[in-house]
From TrEMBL:
<dbReference type="GO" id="GO:0016788">
    <property type="term" value="F:hydrolase activity, acting on ester bonds"/>
</dbReference>
<dbReference type="InterPro" id="IPR035669">
    <property type="entry name" value="SGNH_plant_lipase-like"/>
</dbReference>
<keyword id="KW-0378">Hydrolase</keyword>
<comment type="similarity">
    <text>Belongs to the 'GDSL' lipolytic enzyme family.</text>
</comment>
<feature type="signal peptide">
    <location>
        <begin position="1"/>
        <end position="21"/>
    </location>
</feature>
<keyword id="KW-0732">Signal</keyword>
<dbReference type="InterPro" id="IPR001087">
    <property type="entry name" value="GDSL"/>
</dbReference>
<dbReference type="GO" id="GO:0016042">
    <property type="term" value="P:lipid catabolic process"/>
</dbReference>
<keyword id="KW-0442">Lipid degradation</keyword>
<dbReference type="InterPro" id="IPR036514">
    <property type="entry name" value="SGNH_hydro_sf"/>
</dbReference>
<dbReference type="Pfam" id="PF00657">
    <property type="entry name" value="Lipase_GDSL"/>
</dbReference>
<protein>
    <submittedName>
        <fullName>Uncharacterized protein</fullName>
    </submittedName>
</protein>
<keyword id="KW-0443">Lipid metabolism</keyword>
<dbReference type="InterPro" id="IPR051058">
    <property type="entry name" value="GDSL_Est/Lipase"/>
</dbReference>
Length: 360
């Protein structure tokens, strides 16, 4: 009897949630979270050829820089939602708009001059302009009041900063930025510019924003191949990540204090990744140094293509290609985002957020 009552109550409550089956999800950033926008652009930063997508449900490349699912996909699963469509996809229309949208574009950074070698990518300011445009489109569909509710009630993910090091400051020896700024000054500048981006997201209506730091930049197979003698992480790039990530957490705390609300949530992706790197076996990986797909030392040279070495069991590798985590690693990262302690998720993990927000 009480079981039946509970089921009825749950049915009524889920009915009250009304039009949206689950909250909308918006994604901004770089290749770690791009669901395929770059497929629609004339750029070399793309993942639209095999073996990318080899473990995706369709077994086909989608533009994701993964053998299968990526971080936003696993977050969508946690929300009980369909994966976010790339903003440039023609399929993102009508009711599909209500699921949210993915504005991310491989190669971008905080700065406009990051990734210039990729030419035609959607830089972060453009991603935010598209978010505004998206809201106008949803407005036309469901009206201003409901659009505002959808946006305010959404979960947002933003991942950028890594490319400002690997595809800018450290792209070539004596890069323009490295001649202009000593590393600590450059990091301050990035944080200063990132603050503007996060404030703009807030002004556009975002109220729950997961902000990931960079991974351990010096330990990715590409940097091991380029800079390491005996498999140790590149000190210089590790120093960059160690300067950037704590300042990002400080920035987030400051912004939340100013807003009087925990709008921004810092995800310590450096620490999450470091766990795999220090003890890959504990997470079921045979290695965290060698990429599954690539060539040269650590499979870290050049791009992952049909001609590359390809490991048979992708789940045994922390890195899929020279820069990007495998599907398995992405899944573990999202588990930490969901349930991690405050060491990983500050001020709180995603399951706490979802529980809090469902009460509103
Ligand atoms: C990047 O470009 C946008 C749009 O042109 C501009 O508003 C912004 O200030 C630029 N950012 C930097 C760091 O120069
Ligand atoms: C999330 O974070 C809270 C507070 O740090 C912690 O108590 C909880 O165990 C974490 N995991 C889940 C699933 O809530």
């Amino acid at each position: 009897m009480s079981c039946i009552v509970l089921v009825l109550v749950m049915a009524i409550f889920s009915g009250f949630n009304g039009t949206e089956a689950s909250r909308a999800f918006f994604v901004f950033g770089d290749s770690l979270v791009d669901n395929g926008n770059n497929n629609f652009l004339a750029t070399t930063a793309r993942a639209d050829a095999p073996p990318y997508g080899i473990d995706f449900p369709t077994r086909r490349p989608t533009g994701r820089f993964s053998n299968g699912l990526n971080i936003p996909d696993f977050i969508s699963q946690e929300l009980g939602a369909d994966p976010t469509l790339p903003y440039l996809s023609p399929e993102l229309d009508g009711q599909n708009l209500l699921v949210g949208a993915n504005f991310a574009s491989a190669g971008i950074g905080i700065l406009n001059d990051t990734g210039i070698q990729f030419v035609n990518i959607i830089r972060i300011f453009r991603q935010l302009d598209y978010f505004e445009q998206y809201q106008q489109r949803v407005n036309a569909l469901i009206g201003a009041e409901k659009t505002k509710q959808l946006v305010n009630g959404a979960l947002v993910l933003i991942t950028c900063g890594g490319n400002d090091f690997v595809n800018n400051y450290y792209l070539v020896p004596n890069s323009a930025r490295s001649r202009q700024y000593a590393l600590p000054v450059y990091v301050n500048y990035l944080i200063f510019e990132y603050a503007k981006i996060l404030r703009r997201l807030y002004d556009l209506g975002a109220r729950r924003v997961l902000v990931t730091g960079t991974g351990p930049l010096g330990c990715v197979p590409a940097e091991l191949a380029l800079r390491s003698r005996n498999g140790e992480c590149s000190e210089e790039l590790q120093r960059a990540a160690s300067l950037f990530n704590p300042q990002l957490v400080d920035l987030i705390q400051q912004l939340n204090n100013q807003l009087g609300s925990d709008v921004f949530i810092a995800a310590n992706t450096q620490l999450m990744h470091n766990d795999f790197i220090t003890d890959p076996q504990a997470y079921g990986f045979v290695t965290s140094k060698v990429a599954c797909c690539g060539q040269g030392p650590y499979n870290g040279i050049g791009l992952c293509t049909v001609a590359s070495n390809l490991c048979p069991n992708r789940d045994a590798y922390a890195f899929w290609d020279p820069f990007h985590p495998s599907e398995k690693a992405n899944k573990l990262i999202v588990q930490q985002i969901m349930t991690g302690s405050t060491k990983y998720m500050n001020p709180m993990n995603l399951s706490t957020i979802l529980a809090l927000d469902s009460r509103n």
